[in-house]
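User: C-alpha cells in, sequence out, please.
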C-alpha cells in the first residue's frame, strides 16, 4: 500500500478496515458453494478464455487505485498490457484522499470510478446502500467462471446473490525480520521478546519492533489469540470486552514497550526500513518496498502466545464494480469487467504478483503452487491462522471505538480492561 492506503489502515475509525480475508464469510450466492445461484459462473461458462477483449467496440473505464509505489508501478504495466491486448482504455487514477470518503462524495455526484481496488470488507457495507446505490451487480456481464477462484475468494465477491467484484489476492499481517539482526525467526512471543531486548535502545534511535499498535486491523491477531472475537459476526454481537479478548490485549501490551513513540504507520515502517528495528509486523503490500530497503529480508508467521496462533484479520482483494456502471455505455461495462477478468485469471499476472508483491493467490490453478516464494508461503500460513474481516455493516461501528481504546492504553491513559469495556459500550450504543 502506498502512503494513502497506509493512512487508511491507521485511520480505520469512521471507515472500515483494510484489508482482508482468506476465510471469508459466506455472504453471497446460495450459501452452499459460493456460486451466484446458477452454475458457479458470473454469466457464462468462461469458455472464451477471458482475455479481456470486448469482442467489438472498444471502451474506456476509470479505475481508482490506492497502492504502494511498487504495486502501483506493477499495476500500470499490467494496464498497458491489457490495453494493448483489448484495445480498451483504462484511466487509472488515485482517489485524492481516503478512498472510502472519496467514494462517498464522488458516487452520489455521478463522478465516481467505474471500478476500484480494495479488500472485501466493504462489500456488505456498500451492498446495502440504496439511495444512491454504490455497487453494480455484474453477474450478467462477466465472462469467467467463479470456479476459477478459491471458494472463500468467490464468496467474498458476492452478497445476497449479487456479484460485486472479482478477487485477485488474499492478505493479512505477518512478521517481517531483518536476517542481519535475527539469527532465527522467533516461533513464540517469549523468543521474540528476547530478541527485541537485545536491540531496543530508544535513546539511540534503536527499537525492538515496528508495528502500528493502535490500529485494530494490525493488532487483531493478538487480541483474538485466545479465541475471542472483536466482533462476533455469526451472532452479530460485540465481544471485544470478552475475557478472551482481554487476555489477548494483555499479550499485545507486551509489544507496546518496543515500538517507536509515534504509533502512526509511517513512523513505524520507517524504523524497520532504515534498519533500526529487527522486526516489523505488516502486510504483503510492503514486501516489494521492503525488499528494496533490507538486503536480507525474512517473513514468518506471527509468534504464538501461550501456544496459540494469533488470529489476525485477513481479507480478499477485489476489483469492485461501481454503481457508475449501471448507467454507463456497454463498452464501459465491458472494459471495466474485462480488466478485472483478465487480471484476476491470468496465471502469469498472479504468479508474478506473488513473487514480486507478496500477493497470496486465490486463483485456483495457482494456489498451492510449489514455486511460490517462502515469503508468500509465510503469509499464506498466517492467513490460515486468521479470521475474515467481518463484512456486516455493523462492523463500521467497531473500528473507531477500538482504535480510541488502543490509543488510550498505549498512551497510559487507561488500563486495557477498562478501555475494552468502554469500547464495547460505545459500539453497542452506536448499533
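Assistant: Sequence out:
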Amino acid at each position: 500500500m502506498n502512503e494513502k492506503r497506509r493512512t487508511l489502515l491507521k485511520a480505520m475509525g469512521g471507515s472500515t478496515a483494510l484489508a482482508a480475508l482468506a476465510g471469508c464469510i459466506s455472504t453471497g450466492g446460495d450459501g452452499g458453494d459460493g456460486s451466484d445461484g446458477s452454475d458457479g459462473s458470473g454469466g457464462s461458462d468462461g469458455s472464451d478464455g477471458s482475455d479481456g477483449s470486448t469482442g467489438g467496440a472498444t471502451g474506456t473505464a476509470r479505475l481508482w487505485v490506492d497502492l504502494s509505489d511498487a504495486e502501483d508501478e506493477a499495476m500500470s504495466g499490467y494496464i498497458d498490457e491489457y490495453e494493448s491486448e483489448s484495445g480498451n482504455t483504462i484511466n487509472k487514477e488515485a482517489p485524492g484522499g481516503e478512498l472510502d470518503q472519496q467514494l462517498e462524495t464522488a458516487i452520489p455526484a455521478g463522478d465516481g470510478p467505474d471500478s476500484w481496488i480494495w479488500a472485501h470488507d466493504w462489500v456488505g457495507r456498500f451492498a446495502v446502500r440504496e439511495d444512491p446505490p454504490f455497487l453494480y451487480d455484474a453477474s450478467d456481464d462477466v465472462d469467467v467462471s467463479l470456479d476459477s477462484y478459491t471458494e472463500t475468494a468467490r464468496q467474498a465477491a458476492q452478497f445476497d446473490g449479487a456479484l460485486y467484484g472479482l478477487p485477485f489476492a488474499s492478505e493479512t499481517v505477518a512478521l517481517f525480520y531483518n536476517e542481519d539482526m535475527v539469527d532465527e525467526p522467533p516461533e513464540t512471543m517469549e523468543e521474540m521478546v528476547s530478541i527485541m531486548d537485545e536491540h531496543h535502545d530508544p535513546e539511540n534511535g534503536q527499537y525492538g519492533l515496528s508495528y502500528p499498535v493502535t490500529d485494530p486491523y494490525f493488532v487483531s491477531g493478538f487480541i483474538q489469540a485466545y479465541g475471542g472475537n472483536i466482533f462476533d459476526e455469526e451472532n452479530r454481537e460485540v465481544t471485544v470486552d470478552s475475557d478472551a479478548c482481554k487476555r489477548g490485549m494483555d499479550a499485545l501490551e507486551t509489544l507496546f514497550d518496543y515500538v517507536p513513540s509515534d504509533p502512526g504507520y509511517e513512523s513505524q515502517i520507517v524504523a524497520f526500513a532504515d534498519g533500526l528495528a529487527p522486526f516489523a509486523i505488516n502486510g504483503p503490500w510492503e514486501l516489494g518496498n521492503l525488499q528494496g530497503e533490507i538486503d536480507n529480508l525474512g517473513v514468518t508467521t506471527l509468534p504464538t502466545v501461550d501456544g496459540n496462533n494469533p488470529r489476525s484479520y485477513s481479507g480478499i482483494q477485489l476489483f469492485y464494480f461501481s454503481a457508475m456502471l449501471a448507467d454507463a455505455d456497454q463498452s464501459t461495462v465491458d472494459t471495466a469487467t474485462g480488466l478485472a477478468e483478465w487480471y484476476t485469471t491470468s496465471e502469469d499476472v498472479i504468479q508474478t504478483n506473488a513473487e514480486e508483491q507478496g500477493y497470496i493467490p486465490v486463483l485456483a490453478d495457482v494456489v498451492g503452487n510449489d514455486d511460490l516464494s517462502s515469503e508468500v508461503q509465510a503469509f499464506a500460513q498466517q492467513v490460515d491462522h486468521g479470521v475474515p474481516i467481518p463484512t456486516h455493516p455493523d462492523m463500521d461501528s467497531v473500528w473507531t471505538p477500538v482504535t480510541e481504546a488502543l490509543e488510550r492504553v498505549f498512551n497510559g491513559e487507561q488500563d486495557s480492561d477498562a478501555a475494552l469495556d468502554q469500547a464495547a459500550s460505545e459500539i453497542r450504543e452506536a448499533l
